[in-house]
Each structure stands twice: as structure tokens, then as C-alpha cells.
Amino acid sequence: MPGVRGPSDYSLEPPRHPSLQINSKEPFNAEPPRSALASSYVTPVDFFYKRNHGPIPVIDDIHSYSVSFTGLIENPKQLFMKDIRALPKYLVTATLQCAGNRRTAMSKTRTVKGVGWDVSAIGNAVWGGAKLADVLELVGIPKLTGATRSGGKHVEFVSVDKCKEENGGPYKASIPLIQATNPEADVLLAYEMNGETLNRDHGYPLRVVVPGVIGARSVKWLDSINVIAEECQGFFMQKDYKMFPPSVNWDNIDWSTRRPQMDFPVQCAICSLEDVNAIKPGKVKITGYAASGGGRGIERVDVSVDGGKTWIEASRYQRTGIPYISEHTSSDKWAWVLFEAMADVQQNTEIVAKAVDSAANVQPEKVEEIWNLRGILNTSWHRVQVRVGHSSL
Q1: If exposure means fewest CB atoms within 10 Å of the residue's CB, which of 49, 178, 213, 214 is most exposed?
Q2: In the CATH hierarchy, which top-level class contains the domain 267-388?
Q3: From CA 237, how far away is CA 225, in angstroms rounded?
């Protein structure tokens, strides 16, 4: 592709915030401290987790950059940035979460394969760009199309990004055509994040944002979009990011028995306390985030300061001054909800949080019940151990 530099230029790492916790250097994967995460509803770009499977591409000739549309369509096309920017621009507030968020806690049960993440492989941003449904109309696919005349049922996104899992080929993933052509699904070809041009870490110049779905499907650094008959056959759709029961191990795994993971289950985490925090006895403010996939709202967040014996309901909010009502038009359906609870803590204890979404899905109590060999979708109750110190320090 014109404007894409070769591997020798990949050493040019983007500038990054010094407080990020680096979980792997090559490829670069990092998350912010949890305390920074819940301090704002919209996550600053600097504090948005960085997730990569290969070196970060450098695309510097924006005028020659284009995305090709191919496959089972009647009008194959190449679209340049000016074509995409000419379409109506939408702003969608959406939370992206890596399927491996909270993997580190899962690996304490039994070893798992994958980058170790604490609770911050998640972030909420205002994405700006064209709706994929509008873009697909340019290549002759009407809105709310489930299949093209030539049998296309899935939309595959192919990245400029090259990774070892694809044997040096590009990172790719797909979503169903009916989701891609549904304007209500808010799938974007995004060129802005929080009102600024996307930066290199987050997919400059153009990325897909698929709200409500694990982050692995929101492909960065778009190269091409293909309409295909079956799901994408790439590694990250077929041999990764699938949910297996605890009984499956690397000797007996059969990847073909599971569908690629799409929606994220209900999730929450405490961000105001680190594990074994020393705190003074008395009132403690407990804050964090809760989110669910598929556009489902958060109905409740329960907090316990006695390891789960008794519970108090936390208050929930998105933007200050606007009451959060799950599934209401005033609420951002694709975005997380922040929660806050005050509790009296007088002795060493375990503080626990669990969320319930609008479909009454609840988080599983124990991580052992959902352990899986890839360490994905750890949505078990979030637990933080606290020590209560009576000194005047």
C-alpha cells in the first residue's frame, strides 16, 4: 500500500504516558493504572489501553492511503480518506475492552496463555467517523442487508498490521453483514478519538470500531474490507478468542467446536483500591467501572465489604449531572457506567464488586468456574484485599 513504510521503520515508537504499566514490549501492550481509569467517564487517549499483535505500522502518506472494498459485491472500489470524510460524520461513545482483561487474576488459578492484564485493558472513548452502513452503500450494499446477491454474509476487516500468528500476514477479523449494514449497530470507520485525529497506537489513519463486541474485532490501520460468505478464517477468529470450558487443555482442544467470541459478558472492577491497600479505619469510597456487551445497560452494581456476605447497592452514573437509567435514550448504550459506594471499613477485609446487566445477566462468583486456557473473559466477581492500619501515618 502506498504510504506504508517497511519493517525497518517500525522502531519509531509513538510517545506514551510514563505511568502506563507495560505488559509486553514487543509487541507493545500496556494499560493505565486502575486509579486513572475510573477518574473520568471518557478515557483520555494517553490512558487508553494499548493492544497490539505486531509492530505498529507507520502510514505517513495520507493522500495516497486508501481502503479497498472487494469480495462478493457488485461494485469493488478503492476509497480514499476524502471519500470517507465526505460521508456524514457520527460520534459514538463506546467502550472497548480486550478479551484478556483481568487475565492476570485468572492465571492465579491455573496458568493461561496470553498477555497478562490487570483490570485496565478497557477504556471508553468518543469515536468519530463514518458509519460502516453508509460506506457499504457506496459499494452497492443497501442498509439492513443480511446477504449480498452473490452470497456475501460477513464483512472482513484486514489490517496493514502484520503479525506472527498469521505467519507474517495481516491481522484480520470479521462481523456479520447484517450488523455491518445496520445503522443502529453504530459500527464506525473511525478517524477520530475524543475529538482528535486517531494516533498511531489507536489505528491512524482509519480503524473499525465495533461497539459492544470484544476489542479484537475493532481492527486498526485498515487496509481492506472484504465481503465474504463465511466468517473470517484468520487466526484470531478461528484459533483464538473462543470460550472453552475449564476441562479443555492444549492436548484436547478442538477449535472448530466453538464460535468466535463477539459480545462481551457483563463485567465490573474496583479502580479506587489496589490489592492489599493499607487504609485508615472508617468511611471508604469505592469506585470503579461496569460494562456489558451488545448494548446492554447496567442495571445494578453491588458492593460488599465483608467478602460477599452482605451487599450494598452502588450509585451508577455516566456523565455528571445526568441520572443514569439503563437502556434509556439519555444513556450511552455502548459505554461503560461508573459506580460509587461509601462503606464503613474497620478491619482487614475483602471488598467485592459485581454487576448485573439489563438482561439480568450476573457475574460468576468464582474465577475457577470460568477458567479457560486462553484466559479470556474473566468476568468473575472483582475482589480487592484491604488492610486497615490504625497508625496516624
Answers
A1: 178
A2: mainly beta
A3: 16
